[in-house]
């Protein structure tokens, strides 16, 4: 078990406002749980023991080699494989969670994997990137930072696949160790984020803005009927992403019944209509979970097909050699610098 003070940085602070002396407050996410003893926060994985305990430090519930497009990342190292690592626990309570077996419990089977073992595994497999994914990685921030620091020192890139629901000061400490992120924008209603998902829209918006200012960023929204599919809410998502950058790829995914929500699946035509609507303000919109996804990436300058995708089979006919100074590619036809990063 890892306790407060043995990893750097720590995301606990002494509780105040009349709380018992041995209580601590977790400063990682907007819940700011006050903890004492073995009591755990809403995420299920951070405790008050020893002045701030991490009883699930290094507990890995799943590990696999995935196409990087599965994260999904379409504009970062296209066509490459990535070592994907999953945890347990989450600080949200989405009723439609796709990975509820590991995110909504801490009882899923798992094994301890040290940061050194994880990076050594990626290196032994010849993989140049690690994704922290499946359940919510940010609630394991201390482990993440230890892994990401070590991976970077070995020339291995770090990818966050996250709900982005953490406090701004914590985000500022974590994001610099990452190289790319896919962030869920689950809806655009503060009420829904707070009362249905158990999170904070403002925290997620701030995380997206902070990430986009420093690392390669893509955004995913699962379109759930009668939850976030109104024209008003969709337009709000589009306008927000465009206000950060119209080059951010937006992944528009269809919902299928999972966990507590049994609503009928999102209609294909709904996803395609949203993609068309988003295309008026965002340069790169991609669909997911509808079976006939048309997700080629095209040069916005000359129309050349840069990346051709058939499921997870990826070809890059239009990408020219990357520009070392920017880490971006050029269009092989017109030479335009592309928002596709290595």
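Q: What amino acid sequence fits the structure above?
A:
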């Amino acid at each position: 078990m890892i306790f407060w003070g043995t990893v750097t940085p720590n995301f606990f602070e002494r509780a105040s406002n009349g709380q018992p002396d041995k209580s601590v407050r977790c400063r990682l996410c907007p819940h700011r749980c006050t903890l004492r003893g073995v009591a755990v926060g809403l995420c299920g994985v951070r405790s008050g023991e020893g002045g701030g305990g991490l009883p699930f430090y290094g507990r890995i519930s799943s590990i696999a080699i995935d196409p990087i497009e599965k994260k999904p990342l379409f504009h970062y190292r296209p066509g490459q494989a990535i070592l994907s690592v999953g945890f347990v626990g989450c600080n949200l309570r989405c009723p439609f969670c796709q990975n509820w077996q590991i995110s909504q419990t801490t009882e899923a089977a798992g094994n301890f994997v040290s940061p050194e073992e994880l990076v050594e595994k990626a290196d032994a497999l010849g993989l140049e990137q690690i994704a922290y994914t499946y359940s919510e990685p940010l609630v394991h921030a201390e482990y993440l930072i230890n892994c990401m620091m070590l991976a970077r020192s070995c020339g291995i890139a770090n990818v966050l696949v996250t709900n982005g629901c953490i406090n701004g000061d914590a985000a500022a400490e974590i994001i610099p160790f990452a190289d790319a992120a896919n962030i869920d924008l689950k809806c655009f209603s503060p009420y829904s984020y707070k009362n249905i998902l158990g999170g904070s829209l403002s925290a997620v918006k701030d995380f997206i803005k902070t990430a986009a200012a420093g690392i390669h960023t893509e955004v995913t929204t699962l379109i759930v009927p009668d939850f976030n599919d109104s024209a008003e809410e969709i337009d709000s998502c589009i306008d927000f992403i465009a206000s950060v950058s119209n080059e951010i790829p937006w992944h528009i995914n269809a919902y299928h019944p999972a966990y507590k929500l049994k609503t009928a699946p999102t209609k294909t035509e709904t996803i395609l209509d949203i993609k068309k609507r988003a295309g008026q303000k965002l340069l790169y919109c991609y669909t997911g979970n509808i079976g006939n996804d048309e997700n080629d990436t095209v040069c916005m300058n000359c129309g050349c097909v840069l990346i051709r995708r058939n499921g997870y089979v990826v070809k890059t006919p239009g990408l020219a050699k990357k520009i070392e100074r920017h880490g971006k590619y050029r269009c092989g036809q017109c030479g335009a610098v592309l928002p596709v990063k290595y």
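Q: And what stands out in the fold?
A: The helical segments are 100-103, 115-124, 141-153, 168-174, 190-197, 201-214, 231-244, 268-278.
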